[in-house]
Amino acid sequence: IELPRKYCRFYFMTLRGCERAKCWFWHVPEQGDEKICMAILRTYISIKESGLLKRAVQIFVKYYKEVTPGVDFASQVLNDLLISLLKNCLLREVFQILNVTVRINTLVAVDVLLKVFEHVASLNIRDAVPTLISTFCKLIDAGMFLEFEHFDYIIKFLHQLQVSSQEINTVLNIKSRYVFKELFAYIYPLPSSQHCKEKSDWTKLGALYVNARTGCEHFDDLQKLSLCIAEILTRDSETDRPGVPFCDFADAVIKNSQHNEADRIFIGRIGISVMYCYHKALQWIKGRKVLDKLHELQIDFTVLKGLIGTERLASRCQIVNKAAEIFLKTGSLDGATWVLRESDWTTNAPLWPCDKVDILNRHNLLRTLVHKYLTKSLYRQAFEVLQNLPGFQNHSDTVDVSQYSCLFNKLINACFESKNLGVSSSAVDFMLSKNIAIDFFLLRGLITALGRSSLWSKARTYYKSALSLGCYPPLQGNLYHKLLTIPSYLSEVEMLLAIEIFLVSNASDIQSPMATSQTLQIILKRCEDQTVQNNSDYQAAVERLILAARVSDPKLFLKHMTMNVNMEEVYSLELTSALKWLQENMKWAGKVWLF
């Protein structure tokens, strides 16, 4: 090497180096002589002697303490020097060089850094790990770029060294920061670029998110990223582009997340925000696809809140209302009911408070759902919806449930026309339990239908309730005076039930030894519009009364006595048949009819 005369030839040109206590010549290249510095380092590296390599480190450290790399700086020399130091197990000198490179903003090759980790791991130098991690962090902060697989490579070496979880997490967090950078570099062009129409872009976005989230302990960073992705997905939902990017993104996240619950919650919350955007834009089909995807991934979004926008503060009632409306708009009654059922039909609750507008919207939504079910003759589903109208499940809704009388009666009428006694009976039971007014005509029709279907126990229960509600006029005359007045408009079932009450009320007299001298009278009372001239309706009533006695078990026998001044038929009930009826039925009849 041709050295200027002011340079110490013993130091630069001999293996022993300069041994003078005080040397007047230079041991560090002068500023501006970077080309000479590189030549010296190349020579030392090529000789591969440990002492010269240490001297090379001294020269490099001292030279670049005063100057920054210039045009003659050779990165390959730096990398070769580090590799040679590793081969000679000069780890302390390696860290010296790396620290200098950070200070002068000159980065070594990634492969060299990986070889440093490999060297430490292969020799199991655990004492070097803190310095290694610290140096690694400095290089990253200085701008060194690693691929994802490089991080995996480093983490593998750290596991081999059995380092602490804290040290592993340090590397994982740096990896997350890298993914953030790539994500943001990828995300921001999306709204304005044409290639965001491709499915692969949203799939990649999902995979990048999972990589960013893995091992990340910085919640604020993750929150910012989540908000950014949510904004991108919701912004796209406001366009007329085909497809639903959220679905591709959600599939990618779930596929790569290895069943991480945090990712599922994240998908659910973004899904709510995207659903709100589609709802606002009246894009019902796309909104439905979002809900179908959440259902497919088994994500219960009804217990979550949105990630951005007003839906972050939305009540559970409001979120469920929006979802159910989307199902309705796309013709899925079962979907609307499913989402309501999944939310336990919740309206207002301490953990999920809602306002009056939400409750009003729920009321209107359920009314619509009931009408659609009735149109399709799906009575049981309609009844389920009716039972969960605001005010029934939660008393804090402050809703007057009496307003629902018309809806329930409409259901009972539809069931009655379709001869669906099961649902109509359940509806009446519910209305009685909630003190909701029942249409007396429908209640009487149900009692008659139950009796004609031989469901006498149920018919008697409703007849008893109907009496207490005033559905029938008070029993004319005095039951205990052996006189029963039956309105002629009653069906044969109602007439028989009235006779049963009459028999039970007079049971003690009928069963008395003196009963043979007594008469049990039944008067078939005309209605106000049943004039003598128009007698057909009244004659039909006479036939129903005779039928009522005949269908009784055991049969009852009536004997025509006379016609009173009001032209009403008067009958006597044969005591023998009455006594037989009581003997066979008094055990249960006493419990049913003794009010």
Helix and strand arrangement:
Blueprint: H1 9-13, H2 34-47, H3 50-66, H4 75-87, H5 91-103, H6 110-122, H7 129-141, H8 148-161, H9 165-187, H10 199-213, H11 219-237, H12 245-257, H13 261-280, H14 284-296, H15 316-329, H16 333-342, H17 356-375, H18 379-387, H19 405-417, H20 421-433, H21 440-452, H22 456-469, E1 483-487, H23 492-505, H24 507-510, E2 520-525, H25 536-551, E3 558-563, E4 569-573, H26 575-593
Parallel strand pairs: 1-2
Antiparallel strand pairs: 2-4, 3-4
Helix pairs in contact: 2-3, 2-4, 3-5, 4-6, 5-7, 6-8, 7-9, 8-9, 9-10, 9-11, 10-11, 10-12, 11-13, 12-13, 13-14, 13-15, 14-15, 15-16, 15-17, 17-18, 18-19, 18-20, 19-20, 19-21, 20-21, 21-22, 23-25, 23-26
Overall outline: rod-shaped
Query: What's the pLDDT, averaged over the residues?
Result: 86
Output the helix-strand order: HHHHHHHHHHHHHHHHHHHHHHEHHEHEEH
Rg: 46 Å
Keywords: Cytoplasm, Differentiation, Spermatogenesis
Subcellular location: Cytoplasm, Cytosol
Main location: cytoplasm
Organism: Fulmarus glacialis (Northern fulmar)
